[in-house]
Structure formats: C-alpha cells, structure tokens
Amino acid sequence: MTPDERFMARALDLAARGLGETNPNPVVGCVVVRGGRVVGEGLHRRAGGPHAEVIALQKAGARAKGATAYLTLEPCAHTGRTPPCAPLVAASGVARVVVAVGDPDPRVSGRGLRLLRAKGIRVTTGVLRDRAALLNERFLVAAARRRPFVLLKAGLSLDGRIATASGRSRWITDERQRRAARGLRRLFDAVAVGIGTVLADDPLLLPEPRVRRPFTRVVFDRRLRTPVGSRLVRSVSEGRVVVLTGPRPHPRRRAALEKAGVDVLPTRALTPRGALRALDGIASLMVEGGSALLGAFLHARVFDQVVLFRAPMLLGGRNSLSAFGGPDPKAPADGIPLAPGADRALIAQDPALGAVVGAGGEVWYPAVRVRRG
Ligand SMILES: NC(=O)c1ccc[n+]([C@@H]2O[C@H](COP(=O)([O-])OP(=O)(O)OC[C@H]3O[C@@H](n4cnc5c(N)ncnc54)[C@H](OP(=O)(O)O)[C@@H]3O)[C@@H](O)[C@H]2O)c1
C-alpha cells in the first residue's frame, strides 16, 4: 500500500461508520495529514449534520497549512443544508487534496475539483476508487441514473420459490439470513412491498438495528386494501408509511388510513417507473416482494442490484410462488443475462460494508455486474 492508499483507507473506514445514518446523503470520511502524521479526521454522521471535511479541518486548525487532505468523495460546490465544502477546503491552507471518487451529482461533478485546482491546490483523484464507489454505490448510481437506486431482494428456496401456492412463506430462510436482510434495510431510504405481502404476512419492514434518520415503508396498493390494524400502520410512529394507490382512491379507506398517519399517494400509473417518480425525496429503494411486485420491477428492467437469500432447501410444487412473477417471458433469450460466474455465488465481502452483508449465505448480483441483454 502506498502512503496515499493507507490514508485513504483510513478515510474510508471513517466514512463507513456513517453507513445507514447519512441517507439520502452519501457517507464521507476525511483525513488531514501533515509530515506523514494525521492532524485531523472526521466523518459525515447524518444528513443535515456537519460534513467530514469541515470536522477534519477544524480539528487540524493551523496545522492544515501545507497539509494533504484525503477525501473519500469529491467535495461539494453547491449550498445544500450546509454551506459548500470545496471553498472551505481551499481556504484551509491545504497544499494537496486526494479524492477517491468523483461525485456524479450534476451540481457537484467536477466543479469541486476545478475550484480546488483554480486555487493552486494539487489534486489527485482515483485513490482506492473502487472501494469508495462500492461504499456509496446507492448514492452514486442514483445520481448517475437520475432515479432512485433499486435493489430487488427475496428469500427463496434453491428452486427459486418464495412461498407455497397458498401464500405461506414463513419460513423459507433461517433467522441468520432474515437478520442480514433486516440489516440491509439500514442502507436504504425506503423499502417497498405489494399489498399481497401485507395481507399474507403482516410485515413490519423496519431496519434492525433501527436507524435514527427517517425511514419510509411503501405499499403498492391500487384498491387501498392496506388494513388500518396492520403492523405497518400501527408502527407509523417508528417509520413513515406511504401507500401508493390509483388515481381515484376510495374516499372512506383513504380517510381511515390518513387518520392513522399513513401518507396516501394517488398515482396515475402504478408502474415501477411511475412509482419511483411519485416517491419524491427517496434516493434508494429496496423492493422486498412479493412475487408480483418483484416480477413487475424485473420485467420493467427497473433495478440496479439483486440480493437473493437462498435457503438450502427445495420447495417444489407446480404452483408455489416464484420469486419473480410478472409477465411470462416468451423465450429463454428474454431472460436477463448476468455477468459470467454470477451463478457461482458472488458474495459481497467488502469489509467497509461491515455487518450488513455476508451474514446469511446471500448472493449479491451487484449493479456493476448486471448486464442488460
Ligand atoms: N420469501 C420472500 O422473500 C417473500 C417476500 C415477500 C413476500 N413473500 C410472499 O409472497 C406472497 C405475496 O406475493 P404476491 O405476488 O401474491 O403479492 P405482492 O407482490 O406482495 O402484491 C401484489 C399486488 O400488489 C399490487 N400492485 C400494485 N402495483 C403493482 C405493480 N406495479 N406490480 C405488481 N403488483 C402491484 C397489486 O394489487 P392491487 O391491484 O390491488 O394494487 C398486486 O396484486 C405472499 O405469500 C408472501 O408470503 C415472500
């Protein structure tokens, strides 16, 4: 490891501590180094809170003069909830800035780096880029695609089934796998299910451990059948519940849900794309089933990543529910090709993702590896 890589690795470790709490912002870490010694470090802990650069430079104080600042993400050049960081970095007196990965947000992209260079600061980019990109994958992909990052998640038998024909799914996966899935929710702004799942399973859909920032649970429900007495609705104080419904919601059911604290969102077309447009302010969504909803997202090709928790069992049955329902493909060629080797359990092992992955035999098909046919 070069010294640059070593300090960037430290900045990435710091950034990773913010995972789950900075949404919808990215996680960011910063280390300020002078004469080979760390003189200040910081991380972005929550949206609306101080940025990593600000904390690290404050700690460094006068020692920032002539120092090198290691940043896991290009500093912002626009005013959001807090003032822009690039001018602050420039004013701190650092002589050099090392950045792991650029920010694709059009308000930032390249502007932060240009501003630093214009002030005579030496800028190096791309140090531990892949690790940094993986850490903020949801944020970076959403910014580049200009729609929320979408993960499709299912817990299934080896023959690809998520429930019996009568809709019973408890349990196919084991507790370790289910705990990992609840942990995965921490990385997302929101989770979504179809009304079929709410009626069959009465799920809670909260992350575990809980997050302190806002977390949204979304139900796709054209006829407003979400029961007011469901665990979802009863737990609305722990996380917002949004029911996406058709253009003319049933007035009485709507009033009852709204009275219980649910946001009922009439949507012209309850397609995956229409829903994503309606979900304003949500930058990452984990779609958790059931079969019809996962199938709809697959069919519409609206997803960036798939995580399948595969239980070591065969369920069988002609009518057991397949993980991805939706319209039937006409030929095998209509399937979605994944990268070579994807069938051989590509398990995400990145330590930066900490306890979130790898706990339960899950198979990840990450965004960068999903090739659209
Ligand atoms: N093992 C697992 O990981 C797992 C996870 C979740 C669920 N499950 C199981 O899956 C079963 C439920 O699956 P399901 O297929 O019956 O129901 P589902 O996918 O949960 O819900 C489907 C319903 O959602 C509504 N919907 C609204 N917009 C939609 C859209 N764009 N695309 C698709 N559906 C839309 C439709 O009802 P309206 O027309 O009334 O709106 C549709 O009938 C249950 O048995 C549950 O236990 C298993």
Explained architecture:
- The chain has 373 residues and is of the alpha/beta class.
- The chain is elongated and about 70 Å long.
- 27% of the residues lie in helices and 20% in strands.
- The longest helix is centred in the first third of the chain and has 14 residues, at 3-16.
- The chain has helices at residues 3-16, 52-60, 86-91, 111-118, 129-135, 137-145, 175-184, 195-201, 231-234, 251-259, 272-278, 291-299, and strands at residues 29-34, 37-43, 68-71, 96-99, 122-125, 149-157, 161-163, 190-194, 216-220, 240-245, 263-266, 284-287, 305-311, 321-322, 362-365.
- NADP nicotinamide-adenine-dinucleotide phosphate binds next to strand 6, strand 7, strand 8, helix 8 and helix 12.
- Please give the count of helices: 12
Classify the helix fraction into a percent range: 25-40%
C-alpha geometry: elongated
The ligands bound in this entry are:
NADP nicotinamide-adenine-dinucleotide phosphate
* Number of β-strand runs: 15
Query: What is the average of the pLDDT values?
Result: 89
End-to-end separation:
38 Å
Largest sheet: 8 strands, mixed
What is the radius of gyration?
22 Å
Low-confidence stretches are 345-360, 366-373
Give me the secondary-structure category: alpha/beta
